[in-house]
Amino acid sequence: MGLINNINKAFDHRIRLGIMSILMVNEYAEFTTLKELLEATDGNLASHLKALEKAEYISVQKQFVGRKPNTKYIITDLGKLEFKKHIDALEKLIKRT
Amino acid sequence: MKDKDYLNDITEIKEMMNKSSRFISLSGLSGVLAGIYALIGAYLAYNAIEDYKSSLLINYNYITIKHLAYINLEIYLVTVALAVVLLATLTGIILTRIKAKKHNAKMWDATSRRLLINFLIPLVTGGFFSLVLIQRNFVSLTAATMLIFYGLACINASKFTFRDIKYLGLVQLILGLICTQFVGYGLYFWAFGFGVMHIVYGAIMYFKYDRTK
């Protein structure tokens, strides 16, 4: 069934869904902002970010603000496209019942 | 499959999109109070202007007295206006801080910064433009100008907080445009826009968002 195919396994977790949602509506988000919004631990959040980065749905920008490292996450065009497909698929699945 | 999970997912997505891009700790009650301050200010201004008018009738011969009275009136009106703005801002900050604390949100973060900047750009422009109008002796248009620019500021800010603020902005904008055609009634339009409309809007916001939580 075509509908199920569009359900993207890469987004099949609350944290990943959250990361993508935040990055969809913001130019970028910092690690600390994501952490606060998603109420996740450092390690947990980092591993989900890594997975999304590997799939090339998000890109990472590492900078130094003064001496503090500062990491920015930005959604890629591919990420936007895939996430939109994912939302569409979810909505269709809900409407079907 | 599990439809309930999908519905949860969608809700979660929406919530995260809103939470991360919109500042939702704005207090409705502070809108009501700002409106009350504005009405009190407008009442004080109205009385001062009436006093000034009647003093003109008595002292119509004495140009220096007239001039002095005019300067006094100007100082008084500016003081009242500043007091209203200051009180409204202060109340807004305090009540917003309380509301942010209530649902564990920060008052000063990326969303509130963005909201403030986008609100202030049209507002400050309007403020300076109003001063220029006074400088060029177009005093009769200042009330309309304030309403119009405040309306634009609200509409601009609506992208970064509750969407409802857009309708407040539209009402102010329309009031301002109508006001341009009724020279001499600026204070009434001002009192209605900044006073009554703030109370109405603040009350709607309070019942819609604040009380349920």
Automatic annotation (TrEMBL), chain A:
Lineage top rank: taxon: Bacteria
Pfam families: HTH_34 (PF13601)
Coiled coil: none
Protein name per Swiss-Prot or TrEMBL: Transcriptional regulator
Gene3D superfamilies: Winged helix-like DNA-binding domain superfamily/Winged helix DNA-binding domain
InterPro entries (alphabetical): WH-like_DNA-bd_sf, WH_DNA-bd_dom, WH_DNA-bd_sf
Domain Winged helix DNA-binding: 15-94
Source species taxonomy: Bacteria, Pseudomonadati, Bacteroidota, Flavobacteriia, Flavobacteriales
TrEMBL record, chain B:
Keyword terms, alphabetized: Membrane, Transmembrane, Transmembrane helix
Domain of life: Bacteria
Transmembrane segments: 23-46, 75-95, 115-134, 140-158, 165-183, 189-207
Keyword Membrane part of the UniProt annotation: yes
Listed name of the protein: Uncharacterized protein
Organism: Neptunitalea lumnitzerae
Lineage: Bacteria, Pseudomonadati, Bacteroidota, Flavobacteriia, Flavobacteriales
